[in-house]
Write a structure and sequence with these properties.
0% strand, mainly alpha, 161 residues
Length: 161
């Protein structure tokens, strides 16, 4: 019986642990949503910068001879920004995919463990109930047997006297 109580306490601790992990996973999802919002703002800012760059490029074309050195430097910088943006987009997409996949796997694992834990707990509870019922039945049988023996002994005793 003590083993069953220890097992139940252990199961309760596991459930609390899984609940904590689930809560942490939810916080990670919230953080990921905030990153996505920040990324959208960054894209808008990038689009605004890109638009301004186009206007600047037109101005440079009008004064190309005067600003030739500046134009080459700007192009190099723009290429770096575009490459950096492309690298960031790729890294972010990979991070998002991996994070979503990991969270889904963790949730599936957590759900499966919870179902297994629930099933095991129900089986153990049923087994404990069956054992208790068997013990009660055994005690009742022994009690009836003892009462019968006492009745027989009392009858024999009464017959003698």
């Amino acid at each position: 019986m003590a083993d069953n109580l220890n097992s139940l306490e252990h199961l309760e601790r596991e459930i609390a642990n899984y609940h904590s992990k689930f809560h942490q996973s939810s916080e990670v999802l919230d953080d990921l949503a905030q990153v996505q919002v920040n990324f959208r703002d960054l894209v808008q800012k990038y689009q605004a910068l890109k638009s301004e760059h186009q206007e600047f490029t037109e101005y440079i074309n009008e004064a190309q001879t005067e600003f030739a050195a500046l134009q080459a430097e700007s192009k190099s910088t723009i290429d770096q920004v575009v490459q950096t943006q492309d690298n960031f987009d790729k890294s972010f997409a990979e991070l998002e995919t991996t994070t979503c996949k990991n969270i889904k796997q963790a949730l599936e694992t957590l759900n499966q463990r919870f179902l297994n834990l629930e099933s095991t707990t129900e089986q153990r509870l049923s087994q404990c109930q069956d054992e208790a019922q068997q013990a009660l039945t055994s005690l009742q049988t022994q009690s009836k047997y003892a009462v019968n023996k006492i009745d027989q002994a009392q009858k024999k005793f009464n017959q003698r006297f």
